[in-house]
Design a protein that fits this description.
heterodimer; A: alpha/beta; Rossmann fold; Alpha-Beta Plaits; 2 domains; 11 helices; 36% helix; elongated
Chain lengths: 324, 242
């Protein structure tokens, strides 16, 4: 059992603040470090792994300072984001070399066990250069696991993986978490994080924006007002029935020329008798709204041409969290 | 010293046909020596010209540059050094081991061929072969450790190393005698001068610095570079894509 503690940690590079006064505790189980690109996730992981000095604050593992403390690597396994390895060797040789660098009592057995854990035994004799992206990721995992560390740090481990490899790695991480290890991985994809992480730490623009279980984070993200752009054959009638429902808090009829510029459709947009061409709807309860909309339309004989969420990008979801 | 670090370093220094490249430099020197001996016979002046003007002035600095920066630079560039750093290993052990491997490479591909070339050119006469071999060995150690430090400190280690060896030591040194005081080549030459002994001055084996100065400065560079490289490895910043 091991706990990483970040106490008022900041890191700046010249004038740029990459991590701004972050305090978090990462305990056993899987923690997902979630945030858009450039949020400071890598900087944070580098500080947790002892590869970057905090400009202010401290990072400790069970009370022991991580920075400039080589001994800490007996208890930390690090899976770097970059793919480069000493690629003039085979997977087996590389994992074995890592075991020897840890001065383990029985490096062969440790390497064999780590390679078995990541299911690379069949390919262990091949040159690393011949490995696929997923295989490289697994060998990287094996090097991090070879000394059986209580803490595992992974920087964007799912990047560039195909769905099958992703699933496999998720299983692996889940097993690590179940064994009571402290597993932390970074990602910019909510779906990845919520599938396996028991706890989620959200980073936005260098700040610690939210933390909690995936249900709380998911709720924070889905309960925010959702914007929809809707096109139908009778926008005005549709507007009146939507606003009568509780799940919507606002409806706006958009005139044809506004929509053209707003949607970038140019001349293709068709103006109608009522002079409008689209509706902007603000939905408060997104789940029931998407359920209700088709029922309303069919009940009032309105044909829906298009329903599109206006701001589902991750950045907008995150920026909502920051504004709270 | 750490055997695994040494092994990984040696593999990346000599792997992928790089060993042949280094060997080619040595072979060029030996062929040159054999050709000159065949055409001009045994001539101490020519020996001094080849070993001092070509081997010690160009070949050894280049070898030191390749071995010193190659022992750690590529790993820092591609980030794979993280596998060494994320281990309970003293950073000084890593630096010392890598420096040792670089020195071994500079010796095998530099000092040994220089000795052989000296034997081919003038046998054991005037102790030129031994003198230049010792000089090449010492210079190789100096260049390898200094350039290893350069590779740790800056991403432009190779360029700066080249500028130092070719522009500072050779070009500036030939116009501004004072610049030769800060020249690994001249320090090593001072030792060669001492080994060659009596006829050194007559043959033109003369260094711009005295023996004591040369030895002291060499020790400072060799020990200082290796120690400081280890120190800098403790806070090596790994670039990320962010």
């Amino acid at each position: 059992m091991a706990t990483l503690l970040l106490d008022n940690v900041s890191r700046w590079f010249g004038n740029v603040v990459a991590v701004n006064n972050v305090t978090m505790t990462i305990g056993p189980g899987i923690t997902g470090l979630l945030g858009p690109n450039g949020a400071g996730k890598s900087t944070l992981i580098h500080m947790m792994g002892g590869f970057l000095a905090p400009s202010a604050g401290t990072v400790t593992l069970d009370g022991e300072v991580v920075w400039r403390n080589e001994g800490i690597y007996r208890r930390i396994g690090l899976v770097p984001e970059r793919e480069a390895m000493y690629d003039v060797v085979t997977g087996w040789e590389f994992v074995l070399a890592n075991a020897r660098l840890h001065r383990l009592a029985d490096p062969e057995a440790a390497a064999r066990r780590a390679i078995e854990t990541v299911q690379m035994t069949d390919a262990q004799g091949r040159d690393i250069t011949t490995y696929s992206k997923g295989m490289k990721q697994r060998i990287k995992m094996a090097t991090a696991l070879v000394h059986d560390p209580p803490v595992l740090l992974l920087d964007e481990p799912f990047n560039g993986m195909d769905p099958r490899q992703r699933l496999h790695l998720m299983e692996l991480l889940r097993a690590m978490g179940d064994e009571g290890r402290t597993v932390l991985f970074s990602s910019h994809i909510l779906e990845e994080v919520e599938q396996i992480a028991g706890s989620i730490q959200v980073m936005i623009s260098g700040r610690h924006a939210a933390s909690g279980g995936f249900r709380e984070i998911r709720r924070l993200m889905t309960e925010r007002p959702h914007q929809y752009t809707i096109r139908s054959d009778n926008d005005r009638a549709l507007a009146s029935v939507i606003i009568a429902e509780e799940s919507a808090s606002g409806v706006q009829l958009v005139a044809a020329h506004d929509t053209e510029s707003a949607l970038g459709r140019g001349a293709a947009s068709v103006g109608r008798r009522d002079g409008s061409s689209a509706l902007h709807v603000q939905a408060t309860d997104y789940a029931s709204f998407v359920h209700l909309l088709p029922q309303l339309a069919s009940r009032h004989n309105i044909r829906l041409f298009e329903v599109s969420p206006a701001d589902e990008s991750l950045e907008s979801v995150f920026s909502y969290l920051v504004q709270r | 010293m750490n055997a695994v670090v040494a092994q990984l370093t040696a593999r990346s220094l000599l792997g992928r046909r790089r060993a042949y490249l280094l060997l080619a430099m040595a072979v060029v020197l030996l062929l040159l020596a054999a050709t000159i001996r065949g055409l001009a016979g045994q001539d101490p002046d020519i020996t001094v010209g080849v070993l001092g003007g070509f081997a010690l002035a160009t070949l050894i600095p280049l070898l030191g540059l390749i071995a010193g920066t190659g022992a750690i630079g590529p790993e820092i560039d591609d980030g794979s050094i993280v596998y060494l750093l994320a281990k309970p290993l003293s950073r000084h052990t890593i630096a010392t081991t890598k420096a040792t491997v670089a020195i071994a490479v500079a010796t095998v591909f530099g000092a040994v061929p220089v000795f052989l070339a000296g034997l081919i050119l003038s046998g054991t006469g005037d102790r030129l072969a031994v003198g230049y071999a010792v000089g090449a060995l010492i210079a190789g150690i100096g260049y390898a450790t200094l350039f290893l430090l350069l590779a740790v400190v800056t991403r432009h280690g190779v360029v700066i190393g080249l500028l130092y060896a070719l522009v500072w030591e050779t070009l500036v040194g030939s116009y501004v005698p004072g610049a030769q005081t800060l020249s690994i080549q001249q320090w090593a030459l001072a030792i060669t001068e001492k080994v060659v002994g009596g006829r050194a001055e007559e043959l033109g084996v003369t260094s711009a610095v005295g023996l004591t100065t040369g030895v002291v400065l060499l020790l400072i560079v060799i020990i200082g570079s290796t120690w400081y490289a280890g120190w800098r490895l403790r806070s090596l910043r790994l670039t990320s894509d962010e």
